Amino acid sequence: MDYETPLFFRVMEYADAADRDVVDMVSGNPDWEPPEALRDGLREYADLEPDRFQYPPSEGLLELREEIAARRGVDAEQVIVTNGAGEANYLAMARALERDSGNEILLTDPVYPYYPGKTTMLGGTQRFVATEDDGQLDPAAVRAAASEETAAIVVTTPNNPTGAVYPAETMRELVAVAEAYDAILISDEVYDHYDLSGAFASALETDSAHRIVTNAFSKSMAITGVRVGYTILPPELVDDAKSRHMLVNVATTRPGQYAVLNALRETGPDYYERNRERLRERVTTFTDALEAAGAEYTRPDGSFYVMARFDGYPGTLANVERLIDEGGVAGMPGEAFGDSRTAWLRFALVTPRVEEAAERLATYFD
């Protein structure tokens, strides 16, 4: 079986090898500080007894699972702590396909490229549903695409790459589609703390045995390298997911879980609001420059990505490399996210050099 390396790595390698200074707007690595309590937790951990440096419970530290469960309104037994949202999505998609209720995964277009990759890796087949121009997903279109072969419907809200935030009605209707076809709605909510619209609704708000929610602290706490995420499954799907997690990873970082738990307990809402406000300012700065450059662009309701379209400059890998060499800005080609945004480029606003990048783009496309 052939696996295709995600274009993220190819673009980052090209930018790193460039002969000039390049503003990196490729990957979603927050450039701001993690919660102070996260750092405190890691410092504390260094002085704990030797037994704390051994295997933790495979499904995650009980106290962390209980904290997550209390915040999400579920039973702790439904929570598996994973190596980031990446593993959480892998477990969710695997469980959906293992139910012998179809072999097809419904994905949105545009799509976060790791979902199609995981589908291929797990032996499933892909089917795409185009989103609206504003990134919203019409549940009627999902229902029209669904069939008896549909094992799962995978969505992410707030969305990467469009920045769309799906309202409660959309989430309820997507769960209903999953129920109608004995499928699983997999809702990746890793950007939930970056809802800039106030419209975010979790799939957990709809009680159903046909939905799995995945998440992580990678983005919300600016700790993509710590690798602590989680998945919340219906009770009947938990045991086999725990077994797969154990066989693939054994367990997740114990110091990371300890530090995340400390941060959850000690960090107030002001930390998250400061980061949302930072993003709001960056969105304005960046889109103002795109406006000046005559570009069409998306203004995100959530997450931290902006998509832009420049006349005569489609979102190909070759054009991304050209922009790196000639403009000094690295973004992602729209073609990496599916067929519907091939004319676009995607930029991540997680760099303190957003204003500089915006000026470079405005100059380059003037």
From TrEMBL:
InterPro entries: Aminotransferase_I/II_large, AspAT/PAT-like, PyrdxlP-dep_Trfase, PyrdxlP-dep_Trfase_major. Transmembrane segments: none annotated. Its cofactor is pyridoxal 5'-phosphate. Keywords: Aminotransferase, Pyridoxal phosphate, Transferase. One of its GO terms (biological process) is amino acid metabolic process. The keyword Amino-acid biosynthesis does not apply. Residues 21-361 form the Aminotransferase class I/classII large domain. Pfam families: Aminotran_1_2. GO terms for molecular function: pyridoxal phosphate binding; transaminase activity. It comes from the Archaea. The keyword Transferase applies. CDD domains: AAT_like (cd00609). Belongs to the class-I pyridoxal-phosphate-dependent aminotransferase family. Homodimer. This is Aminotransferase class I and II. The lineage of its organism: Archaea, Methanobacteriati, Methanobacteriota, Stenosarchaea group, Halobacteria.
